[in-house]
Amino acid sequence: MAQTDKPTCVPPELPKMLKEFAKAAIRAQPQDLIQWGADYFEALSRGEMPPVREQSERVPLCNWAELTPELLKILHSQVAGRLIIHAEELAQMWKVVNLPTDLFNSVMNVGRFTEEIEWLKFLALACSAL
């Protein structure tokens, strides 16, 4: 590498950003770290919530998790302050944290939610299933 006379300027937010990336990568354990990292930083650049798990990651149907306050906190952090979320996006988040689809459908039916879901109402109904 050639040395230049120009000093390198590191933005003050870079260390925190890299630390958050490293934590997310450890949690996600992606098969292809480079692609996952590209998706992560692309989402950040668009102002979106970065991926928590790989999109291609599928969970066997026989190993459903139980609904816990911790899993609801994860979902709440993924929604990232939005008041409205699309049903397909929420269903995908639900699958990623390995929760049963029938529970998702039950909450959707009880709340009479359609394509656009009021997140806090959905969250409250999901809490009632704890």
Name the descriptors.
130 residues, mainly alpha, 2 domains, two-stranded antiparallel ribbon, 6 helices, 2 strands, elongated, flagellum, cell projection, ROPN1B isoform 4, phosphoprotein, ubl conjugation
Give the N-to-C terminal Cα separation.
57 Å
- H/E element sequence: HHHEHHEH
Roughly what fraction of the amino acids lie in strands? under 5%
> How do the strands line up in the largest sheet?
1-2
Annotation, overall tally of beta strands:
2
Secondary-structure-based class equals mainly alpha
Q: What integer value in Å does the Rg equal?
A: 18 Å
Q: Roughly how much helix do the residues carry, as a percent range? A: 40-55%
Shape: elongated
Low-confidence stretches: 55-62
Average of pLDDT:
84
Write up what this structure looks like.
The chain is mostly helical. It folds into two domains: 15-58, no CATH class; 65-130. Helices cover 52% and strands 5% of the residues. The protein has helices at 14-28, 33-45, 69-79, 87-96, 101-110, 119-127, and strands at residues 84-86, 116-118. Helix 3 (69-79) packs antiparallel against helix 6 (119-127). The protein is elongated, with a radius of gyration of 18 Å. Belongs to the ropporin family. It is found in: Cell projection, Cilium, Flagellum. InterPro entries: ROP_DD.
